[in-house]
Amino acid sequence: MQKADLIVGLQWGDEGKGKIVDHLAQKYDYVCRFAGGHNAGHTIVTEGKKYALHLVPSGVLNKDAINIVGNGVVLSPKDFIKELEQFDDIEGRIYISDKAHLLLPYHAQIDQAKERLKGDKAIGTTGKGIGPAYGDKITRVGHRVGELLNPQKLCEDILSYFKINKPIFDAMGVEVPDGDELLKELEFYSQKLSPFITDTTLMVWDALDSGKRVLLEGAQGTMLDIDHGTYPYVTSSTTISAGACSGLGIAPHTIGKVVGIAKAYCTRVGNGPFPSEDFGKDGEYLREKGHEFGTTTGRPRRCGWFDAVAMKHAVRLNGVSKIALMKLDVLDGLDEVKVCVGYEIEGKVIDYVPYSLEGAKPVYKSFKGWQKSEGVREFDKLPKEAQDYIMELEKLCGAKIGIISTSPDREDTIIRS
Ligand code: IMP
Questions:
Q1: Which residue lies with its CA nearest to atom 2 of ligand 1?
Q2: Catalytic status, residue 199
Q3: Distance between CA 26 and CA 31 in Å, rounded?
Q4: Contact yes or no for 214/202 (Cβ under 8 A)
Q5: pLDDT at residue 395, as a whole number
């Protein structure tokens, strides 16, 4: 049987998956998103036109590919409809699982209210309603995309949910939707999205059975995984490769190659531990040079050095076959480049990701910097110091670095055999 290949983020999200997925998507018949919601975001520039993708899989720019939004995704109909407006001839090229859960405007209100109430304990979420939507799914009070096919019944069910929870919503300042307006909104979603709603599990099975090339597209990153990330400063889904199985309905043995995406340094948005964060001029250099501002929220990203300990953890968790190392050129021009190779916690140095990274101090290995890797397309043409850096990262992380990106341009990519 044909196996599906997988792309997954290995850090705290924003690894530059967009460029690689777009590059690889050209070679696949199906591109399937398995987790997250419109908290994710990347921009793809092709033929001089810019596309902002949040929920729509990256295969949308390959006119021959079928795109699937799997059951593991939480889907905001409003944002999805808006995103679709960027594309022509979309019908027949994109399908949404009837089992995906709906993310509705009240989820965002609840998310924002909870963050406000948490004060300095806030997670720093994107405020899009991701946690409340997944929360409703797990506590079995959520609504699935398939329910959009009967908007009248869905409206009644949502209103009854609000009736039961009214005291809690009142305390949080969350508005109870007006029945007529809600029905109108749900009818609109239903009319727009009905052509795309189907049993995507069967579609993926058929695709694999008939030898089609299938790419599974992850969102966010391993360190934001609900179980294996820096809990509670994580997102609410399974971001690691295992999430592709439940988020699409495929068995583990159908997963083939796993390409893990990592930046040549580290960034994080939102709160939570980030041991290799650099608060000085180097962090600022990376932010400015790497344009490290959130695609979804515009927030400045926290920047720091490559964390090889977290990367080793991510390689093992995801079963990474090879790493794509992004944005190497952003490190150009630095005298010294550092890599975190251990954490010091209460006077003890460890080389694995512990229960909590709170208070962990980085132990660094230092490398000589280099002047210019930007635009280089062959490994042997990289400055010697950059080559040494990459080869040492491979040893520290336990996986081959098979792809290296040296600029945002699709062509400025080194492929190592
Ligand atoms: P949520 O997913 O909106 O609940 O946010 C939870 C945490 O995950 C916050 O720290 C967010 O900044 C972070 N996060 C969510 N989506 C992304 C993403 O696509 N890139 C980077 N960080 C993200």
A1: 235
A2: no
A3: 10
A4: no
A5: 97
What is the CATH number assigned to the segment(s) 101-195?
1.10.300.10
Between CA 358 and CA 3 the distance in angstroms is 39
Task: Report how far ligand 1's centroid is from the alpha carbon of 335 (Å).
Answer: 32
Per the CB < 8 A criterion, the answer to whether 69 and 311 are in contact is no
125 lines ligand 1 (CB under 6 A): yes
Q: Are 44 and 18 in contact (CB under 8 A)?
A: yes
Measured in degrees and rounded to the nearest 5, phi and psi for residue 337 equal: -120, 130
Q: What average pLDDT does the structure give for the chain?
A: 95
Q: Beta partners for 344?
A: 349, 361
DSSP secondary structure letters along 246-280: HHHT--GGGEEEEEEEEESSEEE-SSS--TTB--S
Mean local confidence (pLDDT), 72-93: 95
- Location of each CATH 1.10.300.10 domain in the chain: 101-195
**124 within ligand 1 shell (Cβ under 6 A):** yes
Q: Which of 23, 42, 228, 313 is catalytic?
A: 42
In this prediction, residues 134-149 reach a mean pLDDT of 97
pLDDT at position 408 is: 86
What percentage of the chain has pLDDT greater than the value 90? 87
Residue 244 has a pLDDT of 98
Looking at per-residue confidence, does 233 or 26 come out higher?
233
Numbered ranges of CATH 3.90.170.10 in the chain: 4-78+201-415
Q: How many CB atoms lie within 10 A of CB 27?
A: 11
Which tokens go with 152? 């009248």
53: Cβ below 6 Å to ligand 1?
no
pLDDT in tens, 384-400: 999 999 999 999 999 99
d(CA 65, CA 241): 22
CATH number for the segment(s) 4-78+201-415: 3.90.170.10
Atom from ligand 1 closest to the CA of residue 237 = 2
Residue 271 has pLDDT above 90, yes or no: yes
42 part of the active site? yes
**Other C-beta atoms lying within 10 Å of the C-beta of residue 52:** 15
